[in-house]
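protien #1 (seq + structre)
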Amino acid sequence: MDEYIKPRPESSVLLTIDMQNDFTLPGAPAEIKGTAQAVPQMKRLAEAFRSADTPIVNVIRLYKKDGSNVDQCRRAMIESGAEIVRPGTDGAELVEELKPSPDVRVDAETLLHGDFQEIGPQEWIMYKPRWSAFYRTGLEDFLAGQSVDTIVLCGCNFPNCPRTTVYEASQRDYRLVFVPDATSGIYKQGIEELENIGVTVQDTADTIGWISD
């Protein structure tokens, strides 16, 4: 691993992607297969990053009732009345296992305004309107303010939001760690493609060891 892509724990951030009840809980309206099974690994990662006093950003979606901020491929469904990650609902909340405390609730007004919601020491929630966590968000500026050059990423449904966020981060020259056992929707070719662009792919245990050294 050369000097340009080697991840640095001392200047890293953990990004969790779309870890909300509506995408995770069994029987939820937009349940993504395998997401609930990845939660224990994500919880361990979050706890390790908290112990290391290293930033965590929980990236989420919010679909307004009128569909005005929704992806084109889902807009008709939301306009027809589907209630998925609707602001103010339990379905839009972070899964309980990832919250730093049980009383944390999503502040939809703050997030939809484009601001970051602080939920604990070195921990925030942010809203993204599309697949990538960088698209029309303040994430890049926020990470610069935290002196971050390494992104550790896990979360919901690799083919869509996690993968897009990894590629957008690579375009911005971040050093990258991807944690497949803490992510749903994994497939072999996709992982090989990440490795081909210099992403470090390692499991939860190795990532915890890396951030804890």
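ok now protien #2
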Amino acid sequence: MRDTGRTLFQRTASAMGWWTGSDHAAGERMPLHDTAATIAETAVAGGYSAGLVAAFRLPIRSPSAVAIGSADLEQDLTLTVDHSCPVGSCLRQFIAAAILLLVEGNRMRLTDRAIRFGGAEDGLAGTSVQDLLHGGRDCYDRLEQIVTHVAGESFAQFATTNLLLAAGMTQSVLADAEGFLPRRATGYRLTAGRAHAFETVAEIGTGLHATAGDLLLWNRALLNGRLLTHAAVDLMTNGSREGTPGPELASIVERHRLGWGLESGRILGHRAFWQRGEAPGFDAWLFHFPDARIDLALLANTEQGAETILEPMLRAVLRA
């Protein structure tokens, strides 16, 4: 699949004449909405993803989104921009924001040890909250528990009221095993990585289920300081340690660092914050380019599906 992404980029560039077409003057760029649709259509037609949604916001313009492909292959349901998908590890930035919200409310401190908030002795009891924010999945699972302990309500309840609804994310939900799921697409994977060889993945009922448009709302609310102070946002985005970007971005990323629930660096020469979220049957990416004032959200209802359009979409929105 990862080799396919490069081939897809070349095919898409050729199909578009890379910014020029028969109905455009030489050197004139295609409208970004049309470009995004062409890129997504190429991936879906090539059998790399059952469906794709791309949402973006450019400076001084309203957000725009395109949805291509199928929400459910068996039922022949068309994917729309209102379909939600599980966003996997993209949840980490919501967990980090919830922790910082409690810290700013003087209900806990970053220097507090995990043991203060109960929980089993699992090797993390003596770890500070700040160090947990640098960690991986187990650390963020513990941070969710800490939010529940301090807030006196479930993480889903606290984050829904103070983060999702505060950001205007009315089409997204933090679901538990018994919770209501929004209108969401069916997830798939490609058998042995073969194009068009889709197999259904069992439904995952927990975690954050979001639309691409709602993810853009989250970027705006978080990074514009509507939910947290700018000092707290800086803690999340100013990567505190060196990292290594995944192979999907390795060729176009410089100065990669790991923040709290986010990655940072320069993508195609532009300062960027981002996170990828993988869930069984789904692939999600969320980017913010602070200097260019551009946001991009990609959702696919196929594992590694958004990965196949990653570089061409980034080049398209950044005009690189």
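The two ends are 24 Å apart (CA to CA).
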